[in-house]
Amino acid sequence: MKKVIVKLENFSKNYGEKQVIKNINLEVYEGEFLTLLGSSGCGKTTILRSISGMDKPTSGKVYIDSEDVTDLDPSKRKVNTIFQNYALFPLMSIEDNIGFGLKMKKVPKKEIKKRVEAMIKLVHLEGYEKRKPKELSGGEQQRVSIVRGLINNPKVLLLDEPLSALDLKLRKKMQIELKQLQRKSGITFIYVTHDQDEALTMSDRIVILKDGNIEQVGTPEEVYEQPKSLYVADFIGEANVFNGEIIEKNEKNDVVKINNDVNILIASSNHNLGEKVKIVVRPENIKLIKESKTEKNLCGVIKEQIYDGAFTKFIINIDKLVIKALFIGNDKTFKVGDNVYLKWQVEDAIVVGK
Amino acid sequence: MKHNKFLDNICLFLVFTFLFLPILVIILFSFNTSRLNIVFEGFTLDWYRELFNNTSLLIALKNTLIVAFVSTIVSTIIGTISAYGLKKYNFPFKRVVNELLYIPVVIPEIVLGISLLCIYTLLKLELGMFTLILAHISFSIPFVIINVRSVLENMDPNIEQAANDLGANKFKTFFYVVLPSLVPGIMSGAQLAFTLSLDDVVISYFTAGPGSNTLPLQVYSMIKTGVTPDVNALISIMLLIIFALLMISAIVNLRKLKYEVTR
Fold first, then answer.
1. Which of residues 29 through 88 in chain B touch A, CB cutoff 8 A?
2. Residues B103 and B202 both lie in one domain
3. Where exactly are the structural domains of chain A?
4. Is the residue at B251 inside a domain?
5. Is residue B221 one of the residues assigned to a domain?
6. ipTM of the complex
7. Do B159 and A90 make contact, defined as CB atoms within 8 angstroms?
8. Beta pairing, strands A205-210 & A33-37
9. Residue A71 pLDDT more than 70?
10. pLDDT of residue A294
């Protein structure tokens, strides 16, 4: 049984009239990398600020390590926050920045020096001890801000879009560094981002938020392969969506009638006969064939072929429906204007409800 | 069009002459043998010697410095805390208060002087050093607040939250993180308060009492009896001190600038 380190209980938050968090419950396990994912305004930062104590919930409770901290001052909570803009103390040297938390706890100077040294080593910033934050690059500053939190051995490290101010290359590099840092330290990370790639690559579990509600919680595989709603399917990765109606229920499969009177098979679902459903198929699961042999397949015209090095993407029009299909490498089998049939495995068709 | 460098230099020279000629004249006349500040007759150091025997002038100088230092320190402390409070906390009519701050700055000094005198009379306060210092504190505070506030406006609010998050309570956050960042604003506010106090005549005229005569008041009253050249000597010494202080601050700033550029 995994230990719960942070728990939100019936947590709501209002800003004036507006309810930004709507009565959510969430448990975060010790040692995991949990990502709060959602578009701007979904309430992800509000949740983070409530755990750190910078915001108080309108109703509900926050527990850290089984202790009710709802009304506890941020300075007394065993969590630390990493800010998007780093928020380093501009007039202090790098070592003073990193050692600040320990200084506040009145740790002896000798020990502070030793632990600061270890932290500087951890993020490879040797030789920067005496510099001021302004003299460091964005990536270096973010590394300082991360160890400034880590040095305090927090129960949880809260990261508020820490990489969004960095350029793409550096961001990718820092993603790996952060993940390694988390694994090495064993500290629970709660990470806020709107970047679904970041969430998929780094997280143990992802919490997808929409308008102050939790839409789905799961591992990256779960939320990508078994999205519970159309919103999740669309938000994480790309999705082709078909509207259909269940017209037959067999032992193993359901038959769904989708546009153009084409019937497709899906794995048995808990939807009833005659119910309208939405079917999601990921672009990389779609195969294109020139001729349909036995079953009746969807047929469309290739409108666009986009080559981006590692992948080739096809945009296929089926009447008014636009379908995306993705292939590894430079696929030359088809060209724009070709008529193609679409195929996929039964298990790749995901039902996401109405 | 051809750029005339010669004309540029002439203009520059004229501007500087306009600015500094009066000061140069004062310094020159402090070495003048004649009692009158009209013609230069010959070189002497007598006025400097006389200055140190002119007790009333020296007492006025002492009073001026006491008033300036005390009022600067007190108004800087009050002004800094006020600016922080005005930025950080919300209360009814905050915007009105913020705008009202400019009134003591733009109000004619004579109005402020009369108002203060009124209050002192109402409160039956005896005019003297205390009332004078109080008056100087009251007109200096808005200048400090405005200076400190401009620095506060540019401060990243996350920094305070970060300090709080790292275990610093409100007091420690202010002391370790906020205050050091405010130093430039506090210094320029204090500088302004000090200079304003140092050369104030109008407000001091209404609020000073017996025994609290300041240098500007003393010089002002001398006009009736004639300004003696030892005042020139005193002013020259003060100018020298101010000049030295300015040079030090310029050198420090220049060093800092060089340090940043070479980085």
1. none
2. yes
3. 4-234, 238-351
4. yes
5. no
6. 0.81
7. yes
8. parallel
9. yes
10. 62
CB B173 within 8 A of CB B208: no
Q: What pLDDT score was predicted for residue B248?
A: 87
Do B2 and B18 lie in one domain? The reply is yes
Domain assignment of residue B182, given as a range: 55-216
Q: Are B167 and A152 in contact (CB under 8 A)?
A: yes
Between A130 and B2, residue with greater pLDDT: A130
Q: How many domains in chain B?
A: 2
> What's chain A's average pLDDT?
89
| Residue B112 in domain | yes
Model confidence at A260, in pLDDT bands (50, 70, 90)? low
Closest C-alpha to A126, from A138, A108, A139, A140: A140
Could you tell me which chain A residue has the CA closest to the CA of B169? A75
3-state secondary structure B119-156: HHHHCCCCCCHHHHHHHHHHHHHHHHHHHHHHHHHCCC
Give the separation between CA B200 and CA B113, rounded to whole angstroms.
11
Looking at the structure, tell me whether residues B19 and B41 fall in a common domain. Answer: yes
Query: Which residues in A lie closer than 8 A to residue B162 (C-beta atoms)?
Result: 81, 83, 87-89
Q: Is B56 exposed, middle or buried (0-12, 13-18, 19+ CB in 10 A)?
A: exposed
Predicted local confidence at residue A53, as pLDDT: 92
Residue A192: name the closest of A87, A85, A88, A83 by CA. Answer: A83
Cβ contact A199:A11 at 8 Å: no
CB–CB contact B161 A81 (8 Å)? yes
Same domain, B79 and B190: yes
Write the pLDDT tens digit of every residue in A111-162.
999 999 999 998 889 999 999 999 999 889 999 999 999 999 999 999 999 9
- Per CATH, which fold does A4-234 belong to? Rossmann fold (3.40.50)
The size of chain B, in residues, is 263
Does A106 have pLDDT greater than 60? yes
**B-chain residue closest to A101, CA distance:** B166
Chain B nearest-CA residue for A148: B166
Superfamily of domain A238-351: Nucleic acid-binding proteins (2.40.50.140)
Q: Is the pLDDT of residue A205 over 80?
A: yes
pTM of the model: 0.80
List the CATH number of the domain containing B148: 1.10.3720.10
Average pLDDT over residues B173-199: 91
Q: Is B87 inside any structural domain?
A: yes
Quick one: pLDDT at residue A288?
86
DSSP bridge pairs for A62: A8
